[in-house]
Amino acid sequence: MSPIAQAVQACRRHIESSLAACGRPSGAVGLLAVSKTFPPEAIREAYAAGQRSFGENYLQEALPKIAALADLPEIEWHFIGPIQSNKTRPIAEHFHWAHAIDRLKVAERLSAARPEGLPALQVCVQVNISGEATKSGVDPEHALDLAVSVARLPRLRLRGFMGIAEPTADATLPRAQFALLRAILQTAQSAGLSVDTLSMGMSADLEAAIAEGATLVRVGTAIFGARAPHASMDVHHS
Ligand SMILES: *Cc1c(COP(=O)(O)O)cnc(C)c1O
User: Fold this and answer.
1) What is the pLDDT of residues 111-168, one digit of tens each?
2) Which of 17, 43, 179, 209 could serve as a FRET partner for 222 with CA atoms 20 to 30 Å apart?
């Protein structure tokens, strides 16, 4: 078995043991493999190990990879990077999901550009749960309003919320930030939105995220290895 296939399996076991540790049912968390900066061959190896959902941050990098892997019938592409409003059309045309909706204008443009022949684009509203000024995402107090507006758009299907915890040595801090995102999901459900997704947790903090109710973890390094700096790296997101 290839190292990447082994890492996919180890990551699945890690997710299952984290679920068991907090009394949640097996299978309650999906795995999104974050393949940014890694070549199509690496994605093929993960696919051969049963992985189907892949996350990309940079459009210019992702589009040729999506084309190169078009022969994989069940592959599902998630755009997890910040979305510039002039890049909405190719995202709407080539991805199944977009996780980082942080303003209505971007959502409206994605909805307008989603081709009629495709099912609705699955989306999450990104919330700035760490409160760091440099991080993208809508402020927690505006998350519900944005979600309500996004849910009305015809060619989008609002699934829930996405957040990135502040990397820190203090393990209680990400836990509190993930709990905030969970509370926002519950508020949205109480307000009548049919949302079910908490996209939170990465290689370093997936246990805390799962303990706070994550339904989808986004794991890059633990599957594909350390990333080299990337030429098209968005300067706002190192
Ligand atoms: C890169 C990235 C990840 C994966 O991070 P790792 O620490 O490599 O697991 C997850 N989510 C987002 C939004 C990312 O940009």
Assistant:
1) 999 999 999 999 999 999 998 877 899 999 999 999 999 999 999 999 999 999 998 8
2) 179
Burial label for 72, CB within 10 Å (0-12, 13-18, 19+), is: middle
Q: Give CA angle at 137 (131, 143), nearest 5°.
A: 90
Give residue 202 CA to ligand 1 midpoint distance, Å: 6
Helix (H) or strand (E) holding 212: none
Cα of 222 to ligand 1 centre, how many Å? 10
**Residue 222 amino acid letter:** A
Q: Cα 53 vs. chain centroid, distance in angstroms?
A: 10
Q: Which atom of ligand 1 is closest in space to residue 203's alpha carbon?
A: 9
Whole-prediction pTM: 0.95
Q: Bin 212: left if φ > 0, else alpha if -120 < ψ < 50, else beta.
A: alpha
Contacts with 186 (C-beta within 8 Å, 6 or more apart), sequence order = none
**Ligand 1 pocket: which of 80, 99, 161, 224 to mutate (most atoms <8 Å of CB)?**
80
